[in-house]
Design goal:
It catalyses: gibberellin A12 + 2 2-oxoglutarate + 3 O2 + H(+) = gibberellin A9 + 2 succinate + 3 CO2 + 2 H2O. Its cofactor is L-ascorbate. Belongs to the iron/ascorbate-dependent oxidoreductase family. GA20OX subfamily. This is Fe2OG dioxygenase domain-containing protein. Pfam families: 2OG-FeII_Oxy, DIOX_N. The protein is of the alpha+beta class. Helix content is about 30%, strand content about 20%. The strands form 3 sheets. The protein has an 8-stranded mixed sheet with strand order 1-2-10-7-12-5-4-3. The longest helix is centred in the middle third of the chain and has 28 residues. The chain is globular.
């Protein structure tokens, strides 16, 4: 989940609150108005990243496994076992893979991309009707200007809650209409349908993850069946100095599983073998990666991977990110089959709302979020 990286970790007795408050020290609040900043030659200093974190040019492409889900969904046992094997291999190594023949209607994907313009291309004042409130994770965010004062991401986002519970079948549509107005009813319907499709796809992937870990296909599927997830629309406008900034800073997703669909513009990069690699867009495929919550659920066997997004000077880049999260009352605790004398418990029990609160109020998510959260949780409980 794209919340930008920190390089200096503070003692857990005082989790990094100064990073959440330092906006107050600025006399003139910064506003990220993409319609103006996309043409600006001199970037505000808040968007300029340190030299060691600036984007690399021509990052080599990462060879990511391409998982064909056609045989799995049709019940082919040989294809299913092979898909589970390749998924497991990728998750032990770096936590990223691609899925094709996923069964999601190509028209729905196209509509989900095209409808983003209906929101992000309107004047800033209209987008601010959905402004994200302090400490909340849903709504419109123009960069993170209200939350941080340095290493700001060059992007806009619109995030909203999704629930797979039966009594929440219109939760996305209702939120978007209530927030933006009834003229966004069709807009809301598209993303309600898209989230439903992503939820179903994620449950299938959870079956493969369970099989790859040797605990059967039902365990994780049942854990996430009534998921309470997050959908995010990412909009990266052109930047005249793309070598100075990042669209999304280096981070591991705190959530369980991310299903990402990129448009045809390059931008996603993954840190593997001590080097940044690019993952090229493929309209027919979804990029899937493991998040911190599932790393804890797998008792550390599967890895959440460091990744980021870069921008360019000519073309807007769009991506659709579905973050699978367990229902709020589900306890994140690995199945007993994944705990033994050789692999004792790595992380304490927690619920997703606890980790979400940590990343929203105490810590700017990075590659060490789960470790920092574990230390914070243990201190809090003691």
């Amino acid at each position: 989940m794209a919340i930008e990286c920190m390089t200096n970790i503070q003692p857990m007795s005082q989790p990094q609150k100064h990073h959440l408050q330092d906006r107050q020290e600025d006399e003139t609040p910064l506003v990220f108005d993409a319609s103006l900043l996309r043409h600006q030659l001199n970037l505000p200093k808040q968007f300029i990243w340190p030299d060691e974190e600036k984007p690399c040019i021509n990052a080599p492409e990462l060879v990511v496994p391409l998982i064909d889900l056609g045989g799995f969904f049709s019940g082919d046992p040989v294809a299913t076992m092979e898909a589970a094997r390749v998924v497991g291999e990728a998750c032990r190594k770096h936590g990223f893979f691609l899925v094709v023949n996923h069964g999601i209607d190509a028209r729905l994907i196209s509509h989900a991309h095209s409808y983003m313009d209906d929101f992000f291309e309107v004047p800033l004042s209209q987008k601010q009707r959905a402004q994200r409130k302090t400490g909340e994770h849903c709504g419109y965010a123009s960069s993170f200007t209200g939350r941080f004062s340095s290493k700001l991401p060059w992007k806009e986002t619109l995030s909203f809650q999704y629930s797979a519970e039966e009594n929440s079948s219109t939760i996305v549509k209702d939120y978007l209409c209530n927030t933006l107005g009834n003229e966004f009813e069709q807009f809301g319907g598209v993303y309600q349908d898209y989230c439903d499709a992503m939820s179903n796809l994620s449950l299938g992937i959870m079956e493969l993850l369970g099989m790859s870990l040797g605990i059967g296909k039902e365990c994780f599927r049942e854990f996430f069946e009534e998921n309470s997830s997050i959908m995010r629309l990412n909009y990266y406008p052109p930047c005249q100095k793309p070598d100075l900034t990042l669209g999304t800073g280096p981070h591991c997703d705190p959530t369980s599983l991310t299903i990402l669909h990129q448009d045809q513009v390059d931008g996603l990069q993954v840190f593997v073998d001590n080097e940044w690699h690019s993952i090229s867009p493929n309209f027919n495929a979804f990029v899937v990666n493991i998040g911190d919550t599932f790393m804890a659920l797998s008792n550390g066997r599967y890895k959440s991977c460091l990744h980021r997004a870069v921008v360019n000077s000519k073309t807007t880049r769009k991506s659709l990110a579905f973050f699978l999260c367990p229902k709020g009352d589900k306890v994140v605790s690995p199945p007993s089959e994944l705990v033994d004398d050789l692999t004792p418990r790595v992380y304490p029990d927690f619920t997703w709302p606890m980790l979400l609160e940590f990343t929203q109020k105490h810590y700017r998510a990075d590659m060490n979020t789960l470790k920092a959260f574990t230390n914070w949780l243990q201190q809090k409980r003691s």
